[in-house]
Amino acid sequence: MSTAVIAGIGSWLPPRQVSNDELTSYLDTTDEWIRSRTGIRSRHWIDPGTSTTDLAVRAGRRALAAAGDTGVDALVVATTTPDRPCPATAPEVAWRLGLGHIAAFDVSAVCTGFLYGLATAAGLIAGGMAHRVLLIGADAFSTIVDPKDRTTAVIFADGAGAMVLRAGDPDEPGAVRRCELGSDGELSDLIEIPAGGSRQRSSGELASPADHYFRMRGRDVYRYAVTRTVEAATAALDTAGWLPSDVDRFIPHQANVRITEAVSDRLAIPAERTLSNIDQVGNTAAASIPLLLADAAAHGRLRPGHRVLLAAFGGGLTWGATTLLWPDVISRTDD
Ligand code: UT7
């Protein structure tokens, strides 16, 4: 049985940068509140005419180039902001990347999407259904948050990160270990878009325009985010046979700098080993982990041989974690 091994990584951020000051010009918020409560100083938003597919294609192209442009036989796109409710984003991304008539589908696990996608891609390889898989985490949350809702508009942002996985051996650097995944659907209404799905339509009532926006009960989510991320990360460390002190680089989903500090504190991972880019990119949901991986690898904060812990938490509720040894691969964050 083959193991999925990382062969290359890439990312793309839309050029438009939105500072906290820009948001304070029309929202009842302050730069101080946003920085102190979330760690965010700036984020990237797409312009009208751009969509999640565009983000995914650009990041995917960079990851494919980083992996030597040798093609893939499956594409998995993790996203909560597909271009349309139907069909999935991935087939169009595959077509635009010129990947041929390969298997292509979306995975929906909100901010845990990249780790659910990683488990799915690794499963395709382990099951012999694919030899090389392109996995993309792409989200354009600026298109689903209510621009007038200060509790979400200041946090969420746009971007895409992509990774090529190839069939290899479990002992190789870059081999993806078991992903520890979980969910709790009893809490599904803590993070939701109420309208647009079958529940609203089957009720026979028209949704209000506000119900089409993304909502998050942040304070409630916060509590579960720390506990569940610590549990998943602990399970992943146990699977790897690592102590927290063995972790060279902790790459958590970038939801809130206070959450990632609390998680690394509880896990007893030294703060300097916990990487962050939330100050520049905000919360980019499924793109968060691959954006941070690509950025850190391109700029030497993540180096071959580093023992890496990945962990995420998000709507669903969902959570996940895994470990790997960072391989000697190319990371492309520009063309
Ligand atoms: O991505 C994966 C899933 N998401 C998460 O894991 C996010 C988890 N939650 C969080 O990160 C935090 O709960 C938030 C950043 C969303 C909010 O931070 P908080 O410290 O939990 O603030 P809060 O919701 O308890 O609100 C505190 C106060 C409230 O005012 P009162 O009731 O104390 O008078 C809010 O109305 O801050 C107010 N507030 C704001 N004030 C200025 C909320 N948003 C803003 C804002 N600017 N943008």
UniProtKB/TrEMBL annotation:
It catalyses: malonyl-[ACP] + acetyl-CoA + H(+) = 3-oxobutanoyl-[ACP] + CO2 + CoA. Its EC number is 2.3.1.180. Keywords: Acyltransferase, Cytoplasm, Fatty acid biosynthesis, Fatty acid metabolism, Lipid biosynthesis, Lipid metabolism, Multifunctional enzyme, Transferase. Pathway: Lipid metabolism; fatty acid biosynthesis. GO terms for molecular function: beta-ketoacyl-acyl-carrier-protein synthase III activity. It is found in: Cytoplasm. InterPro entries: ACP_syn_III_C, ACP_syn_III_N, FabH, Thiolase-like. Residues 254-258 are annotated as: ACP-binding. The active site is at residues 111, 253, 283. The keyword Nucleotide-binding does not apply. Residues 105-185 form the Beta-ketoacyl-[acyl-carrier-protein] synthase III N-terminal domain. The keyword Transcription regulation does not apply. Residues 237-326 form the Beta-ketoacyl-[acyl-carrier-protein] synthase III C-terminal domain. Catalyzes the condensation reaction of fatty acid synthesis by the addition to an acyl acceptor of two carbons from malonyl-ACP. Catalyzes the first condensation reaction which initiates fatty acid synthesis and may therefore play a role in governing the total rate of fatty acid production. Possesses both acetoacetyl-ACP synthase and acetyl transacylase activities. Its substrate specificity determines the biosynthesis of branched-chain and/or straight-chain of fatty acids. Homodimer. The last Arg residue of the ACP-binding site is essential for the weak association between ACP/AcpP and FabH. Belongs to the thiolase-like superfamily. FabH family. HAMAP family: FabH. NCBIfam families: fabH (TIGR00747), PRK09352.1 (NF006829). This is Beta-ketoacyl-[acyl-carrier-protein] synthase III. It comes from Micromonospora maritima.
